[in-house]
Design goal:
The chain has about 290 residues and is mostly helical. It has helices at about 1-5, 15-40, 45-70, 75, 90-100, 100-110, 120-145, 150-155, 175-190, 200-210, 215-225, 255-265; strands at about 80, 160, 245-250, 255, 285. It folds into 2 domains: about 1-170, no CATH class; about 210-285, Zinc/RING finger domain, C3HC4 (zinc finger) (Herpes Virus-1, 2-Layer Sandwich). Helix content is about 60%, strand content about 5%. The strands form 2 sheets. The chain has a 3-stranded antiparallel beta sheet with strand order 4-3-5. Strand 3 (about 245-250) and strand 4 form a beta hairpin. It is elongated, with a radius of gyration of 34 Å. One of its GO terms (molecular function) is ubiquitin protein ligase activity. InterPro entries: PEX2/10, Pex_N, RING-HC_PEX2, Znf_RING, Znf_RING/FYVE/PHD, Znf_RING_CS.
C-alpha cells in the first residue's frame, strides 16, 4: 500500500518540463563534445559516416540513461523517474524506436539522400510535420491533465514519478530579485547610452590629460598660411590611418571625410585633435 502511494506521487508540471529541457541540454553537450573530438581525428571520414556516428552517440546516451536507469539524465537531476511498472521491455524498444530512429532518418535525409529518394524525403517531411502537430495538441492536453508531457510518453503510457516522496519544490526568490534588478539596470542603460555623446567626452578628457603646447596659436597660424599637401605617408589626424576622401581644417591637419563629418555631426564645437583648433566652418577637400 505504501509503495502504491509513493508511485502515484504528483509531479508538478514545471518539474516535468524542466526535466525535458535539462535532458535536451545534457544530451546536446555530450553529443557535441564527442562528435567534435571524432571530427578532429579525421574530418573526411567524419563527413562520410556522420549520420551513423550521431546514431551511435544518441543510442549510447539512451542506453546509459533510460535503458539502464529507467530515467533520462534530466529526470535524474530532478530526482524523477518513469514508472517502473509501466516501463516494460516492449515499451523500452518502442521508446528507442520513436526517439532515436526518426532523428537518424532526418539526418540521413539531409546529408545523403538524393533526388532518386524524393519519395522518402517527402515521407520524412510529412512525418516531421505530423509529429509537430501532435506535439502541440499533446502539450495542451498536458497543461490540462499534468501527465505525459511528450507524444512518445503519451503513446506508450509512461508517467513521471517523484523519488522524493512529496518533497515540495523550493523556489529561491533571491535569484528572481537579482534578475529583476539586472533587467531594470539594463533598461536604464538602454535609455541613457544613446543620448550620451562619447566622442565629446573623450575629446574633453584628452584635452584635460594632455598638456597644451605653448606655441599652439603660432603653429595654427603657420599651418593655415602654408599650403596643405597630401604625402604618401600622410595619416588621418583622428583614426591615424590612410585618409579616405581626405579633407582638412583651416589649421592644416588632414582627416578622413567620414571621421571629420561624424565628429562634426555629433559635436558642433569640434576641435582639431592635434592642435585644438576650432574651425569647423572652414573645411576643404584636397
Amino acid at each position: 500500500m505504501v509503495e502504491m502511494v509513493e508511485r502515484n506521487v504528483y509531479v508538478p508540471r514545471v518539474n516535468q518540463i524542466d526535466a525535458i529541457h535539462l535532458n535536451k541540454d545534457i544530451t546536446r553537450l555530450i553529443r557535441d563534445n564527442l562528435l567534435e573530438n571524432l571530427q578532429a581525428i579525421s574530418p573526411a571520414l567524419f563527413a562520410k559516416i556522420q549520420p551513423e556516428l550521431d546514431l551511435f552517440v544518441q543510442s549510447a546516451i539512451w542506453f546509459g540513461s533510460i535503458g539502464k536507469q529507467g530515467s533520462t539524465f534530466g529526470q535524474q537531476l530532478l530526482v524523477l523517474s518513469y514508472d517502473s511498472e509501466r516501463l516494460t521491455l516492449s515499451r523500452l524498444c518502442l521508446h528507442f524506436a520513436l526517439t532515436i530512429i526518426p532523428r537518424y532518418l532526418k539526418n540521413l535525409d539531409e546529408r545523403r539522400l538524393t533526388i532518386h529518394s524524393e519519395w522518402l524525403h517527402k515521407a520524412i517531411e510529412w512525418g516531421e510535420n505530423t509529429a509537430l502537430l501532435l506535439s502541440v495538441l499533446n502539450f495542451f492536453r498536458f497543461l490540462k491533465t499534468g501527465r505525459k508531457p511528450t507524444v512518445v510518453e503519451f503513446l506508450l503510457g509512461l508517467d513521471y514519478i517523484s523519488l522524493r516522496h512529496n518533497q515540495r519544490r523550493d523556489i529561491g526568490y533571491k535569484y528572481l530579485t537579482r534578475e529583476l534588478l539586472w533587467g531594470g539596470f539594463m533598461e536604464i542603460l538602454g535609455l541613457l547610452l544613446p543620448v550620451i555623446n562619447f566622442r565629446k567626452i573623450m575629446r574633453f578628457l584628452n584635452r584635460t590629460l594632455k598638456s597644451v603646447n605653448v606655441n599652439t596659436t603660432e603653429n595654427r597660424r603657420k599651418a593655415s598660411d602654408d599650403k596643405v599637401i597630401l604625402h604618401s605617408n600622410t595619416i588621418c589626424a583622428y583614426c591615424e590611418e590612410r585618409p579616405t576622401i581626405p579633407h582638412h581644417m583651416s589649421c592644416g591637419h588632414i582627416y578622413c571625410y567620414y571621421c571629420l563629418s561624424a565628429n562634426i555631426s555629433t559635436d558642433a564645437s569640434f576641435n582639431c585633435t592635434k592642435c585644438g583648433a576650432s574651425s569647423t566652418n572652414d573645411i576643404q577637400a584636397l
